[in-house]
Amino acid sequence: MTLDTNTLVKPELLAPAGSLESFNAAIEAGADAVYLGVGELNARLRAKNFSVKTLSFLVNQAKKHRVKIYITVNTLIKQEELPSLLNLLHQLNQLKIDAIIVQDLGLVYLARHYFPDLALHASTQMVIHNSLGMLAAEKLGIKRVVLSRELTLEEITSIREQTKLELEVFIHGALCYSISGLCLASSCLGGWSGNRGRCTQVCRRKFRNERESGFHFSPKDFWAVNHIPVLATLGISSFKIEGRMKRAEYVYKVVSAYRRLLDGQTDVDSAREELLLDTGREKTSFFLSSTAQLDIIVTDRPSGTGIHIGKITDVQKSSVSIETDRRLSPGDRLRVQSPEGEDGKVVKIAQVSRSGSKQILTFASLPGIKKQDHVFYLANKQEKNNQWSKYDPGIKATSFQKTYPKIHKALKSLKIKQDNNNVKNRLFIKIDHLDWLNMVKEIDPDYLVISGDYWFFNELLGSPKRTRYWIQKLVVELPPFIPETELNNYRELVSRLGDLGVQNWMSSHYSHKWLFPETDSVFADTTVWTTNPATQKQLHQDDFKAFTYSLEDDLLNIKTMINPNGIMPLFGYIPLFISRISPTAASERLEDDKGIGFVVKEINGLTYTLDEQPLCLFHRREKLENLGVKNYLIDLSFIHPSRKTIKTLVFDYRQARKTQGTILFNHKSGFK
């Protein structure tokens, strides 16, 4: 099928650029816009990224070609980074960047108050996945929303019909197993936060269940090529290609294929054949057709980028043997990856000889290559265009001032007025099972948070006597991901819970604030990431009664932004992944190669992968109280109700003693 370009209002084709070569390749291939990172405040720190000085040349080069530039500033910001952030926003404002892509609510607050001319695009890290999220984005002054990748065509269509904001959707590239913006796996297993651009790709690792080892969380690459004819008619503003970690050759191939398809110069079948050779992973259209699991996960081998061409059959002193149908040549680049899924090694072929069906490859060095390692083809030596590594001749830089002159005033305005003398300590208990209701009475918390989905709360509404004791202390929390098709059900549910007497709510997504009655009290949970006082300011402006410190935060950062309205998580299981994908090892215990255990639970369309050891900070209570922390949370979610368990936890909490078999999360390794 070929697109009818006579009637089509073509979406912008947005390309990734992790290097100057990729930037130039994207322009040459026909991109309408390019997105790239500057410095360290972006979600792809392993890409080369750009300096602001380099950017001062690129903005003029882009204008020459009528190409827009969007800058990714899509990470969570720590308190100590706020001066650097303000200076960066000041620099980008002077360079007249077309837009910045953001995740942190504090960054949105600062940009809107001090740099109102900067256009804001909501990153997919903001987890906007329904029309309620679009409403919240509009209230924030967002111009465009990058939708979550987990949506169906039906859901995207419905959202488009209910908002005037620009929509951006991914059409090609790598997938995360977790919903982007809800992943704590990298942070928990090493302290490198995926929400801060430091993802160590835990989902690509090998895990063992009771039967076998496999890559149970490693998805294929996404492509929407088959759905472009429909997507192009929906009024989507921008089609986005993932790949700031990819080489320039990849960017050129993928952008070129979609450019020709959108311009009516090729048909879907031809574009699909071309994209199969993009040297990425195997392909899936993910959930575009439906949320049914359509062969998304590859379990039997490491999912390295490149075209899988075989395994190493023999290793000699300076050469290896491989049986493959692909004819290899000197200069070809290969990725060699162990069966265990460790990071692959990129090598360039120096010489090739053939013996029957085998090809014998010689490299300058063999960096730990072993028999049975998987081999992926990346690129040919002739695919490199030397012109991509150069600036356009005659391009001059735009001058800019490095330091924001009002930086001290801006930072001073964020300071929280402390009035701890009039604030008493409050304890929040969270449950996700109704059998806890009687068991937690002996703790006598100030608030009882009940977390659940539509069906769970229907069960609660069916037995109102069970909640009568708690009604004044009850706080209701809904799931962090509510599909557009279920949103009206939840609106009706909130109304019925209000009739029951519920007047306190907890938002697991920022947008939930506008789902609850204006006169009620709303708290923000840990998934409304709050890692700086600017975010606290935004939440205060939106009339949130309190917020919860991020699960992945550490004491050094928290102590710089103590707020009497902050809630400190003291105990709870850590959701490493929250996903719409059902893994191949659902409802099972898994273990990685270091012996760390994980538990997988499915709850009404979402899959939660938990660290087997919960967080516990009971023994840090005195230190936290001395810092000024007044509110504490004990989260019993994912725990089978047990009087023995609650007695142990109550004793440890009151004795300020760390419970056995628990971890400190980033309070030990640091929030990086």
What does this structure look like?
It is built from 19 helices and 31 strands. The chain is α/β, with parallel strands linked by helices and 672 residues long. The protein folds into three domains: 12-175 and 219-297, Aldolase class I (TIM Barrel, Alpha-Beta Barrel); 307-379, Thrombin, subunit H, CATH 2.40.10; 421-572 and 614-669, Alpha-Beta Barrel (TIM Barrel), CATH 3.20.20. The strands form five sheets. It has an eight-stranded parallel barrel with strand order 1-2-3-4-5-6-7-11, surrounded by four helices. Strand 16 (345-355) and strand 17 (358-363) form a beta hairpin. Helix 13 packs parallel to helix 14. The longest helix is centred in the middle third of the chain and has 15 residues, at 248-262. The model has no long low-confidence stretch (mean pLDDT 91).
Helix and strand arrangement:
Elements lengths: L11 E5 L3 H10 L3 E5 L14 H13 L3 E6 L8 H13 L4 E4 L2 H10 L5 E3 L8 H9 L4 E3 L6 H9 L4 E8 L11 H4 L18 E2 L4 E2 L6 E3 L4 H4 L6 E4 L6 H15 L5 H8 L7 E2 L22 E9 L3 E5 L9 E5 L7 E11 L2 E6 L10 E6 L27 H6 L13 E6 L4 H4 L7 E5 L2 H8 L12 E4 L9 H14 L3 E4 L13 E4 L8 H9 L4 E3 L6 H4 L7 E7 L2 E5 L9 E3 L5 E7 L2 E6 L3 E2 L4 H7 L3 E5 L7 H12 L11 H4 L3
Parallel strand pairs: 1-2, 1-11, 2-3, 3-4, 4-5, 5-6, 6-7, 7-11, 10-12, 19-20, 19-31, 20-21, 21-22, 22-23, 23-24, 24-25, 25-31
Antiparallel strand pairs: 7-10, 8-9, 13-14, 13-18, 14-17, 15-16, 15-18, 16-17, 25-30, 26-29, 27-28, 28-29
Helix pairs in contact: 1-9, 4-15, 9-10, 13-14
